[in-house]
Design a protein that fits this description.
This protein is an alpha+beta fold. The chain is 25% helix and 24% strand. It has a single domain, classed as 7,8-Dihydro-6-hydroxymethylpterin-pyrophosphokinase HPPK (Alpha-Beta Plaits, 2-Layer Sandwich). The chain has four helices and eight strands, in the order βαβββαβββααβ.
């Protein structure tokens, strides 16, 4: 007997890279996710350059995407982690450089706080490299924790952290 598919849900993810061919890794990750069972990329932001958090390292290339998924949140997290590994992600130090970083920001209006996964992402409201690209593609998305829209959260940033939108081709 086959179980019925999970109901479709929208999820928002943040993407980042500062090692290797960052743009190719980010584009490849989006294509891989879009070809994965139970996932469809609905929208993606422009790419943004941002200063790193943590140890001295190169600037990051960041962006966000909105996905339509039939996977439960934990299965989506597993897919994101597997995609990171496919692109050579090594978790050596906290906030260290990386070939690919994929973070689950929102999963519909779900509030989840488990040992393995927190939704919404616990630090997204203080990160310009997440809020600015996400506001580009999903400004009206309401953060279920604060009740504020992504646009309002982005506008309230006191320090966006040197985030700069890149013109395509740059």
């Amino acid at each position: 007997m086959q179980l019925p598919p999970e109901p479709l849900q929208q999820a928002a993810i943040a993407l980042g890279s500062n090692l290797g061919a960052s743009r190719a890794s980010l584009e490849g990750a989006l294509a891989a996710l879009d070809q994965s069972a139970g996932v469809r990329v609905l929208a993606r932001s422009s790419w943004y350059r941002s200063a790193p958090i943590g140890p001295v390292q190169p600037d990051y290339l960041n962006g966000c995407a909105v996905l339509e998924v039939s996977l439960p949140p934990e299965a989506l997290l597993d897919l994101l982690l597997a995609t990171e590994q496919r692109y050579g992600r090594v978790r050596a130090e906290r906030w260290g450089p990386r070939t690919l970083d994929l973070d689950l920001i929102f999963y519909g209006q779900l509030l989840l706080d488990s040992e393995r996964l927190q939704i919404p992402h616990p630090r997204m409201a203080e990160r310009g490299f997440v809020l600015l690209p996400l506001a580009e593609i999903a400004p009206a998305w309401i953060d279920p924790r604060s009740g504020r829209s992504v646009h309002a959260l982005a506008a309230a940033l006191t320090d966006p952290g040197g985030v700069e939108r890149l013109v395509e081709g740059s």
